[in-house]
Amino acid sequence: xxxxxxxxxxxxxxxxxxxxxxxxxxxxxxxxxxxxxxxxxxxxxxxxxxxxxxxxxxxxxxxxxxxxxxxxxxxxxxxxxxxxxxxxxxxxxxxxxxxxxxxxxxxxxxxxxxxxxxxxxxxxxxxxxxxxxxxxxxxxxxxxxxxxxxxxxxxxxxxxxxxxxxxxxxxxxxxxxxxxxxxxxxxxxxxxxxxxxxxxxxxxxxxxxxxxxxxxxxxxxxxxxxxxxxxxxxxxxxxxxxxxxxxxxxxxxxxxxxxxxxxxxxxxxxxxxxxxxxx
Length: 279
Hints:
Elements: H1 2-11, H2 14-31, H3 33-36, H4 68-103, H5 105-119, H6 123-134, H7 138-165, H8 168-175, H9 180-188, H10 193-216, H11 228-235, H12 244-271, H13 273-278
Family: Belongs to the binding-protein-dependent transport system permease family.
Protein name: Peptide/nickel transport system permease protein
Subcellular location: Cell membrane
């Protein structure tokens, strides 16, 4: 079976292995938040506001006396959930659009013009506009980010579909009269999994950064939801007196996004024959 062998090759690279371990730790903390951080992330204690890191509060407290460690661990659930839903939605919609545009010549031009129009806007500006239209909420942030990153996936899938469509085995099954839906599902889509997997890892990282950016600008999820972005946004005015209120959620964002990018680079290098041959 190829998958175990590919995983072994991927983990052979030290930087990829470290990135995978960092992501595993973050995922375990997020899934086991009630056990790893038993304190309520929204419990306030005004007398303990802006306390530095100590044995009682491993990462200090924020401006309302809330435990930063508990907020970061519990906030990982929301930040990772937003990023995962964004990656999933973008890949599903983008793959569908890319397959339709790459396989059906009549649909290619109109679909790609819409994709080009959406990609002409900077990601963060388009996300801000969409959230402003939909309204600030967790669901609307996910919908906005899905719409922002769908064109990126559609472009990649369409380009790969144009290549696979012309291969001899696809021509053979078409000549045999196999249904178009079966050709797309059984013969073309499996050959697109490599670029799709790479896009998943990249969009996951982009979504974490985008959510933090939207929250920092005040148009993301409501401040009562403890995502890493809302923590940085809500505590920025206290950073000169208590650096930890911005430092720790910022490091969580940086380490997660960087690990995802490095893991995505490793997957791309492993699955791209040209890069593998050059190495």
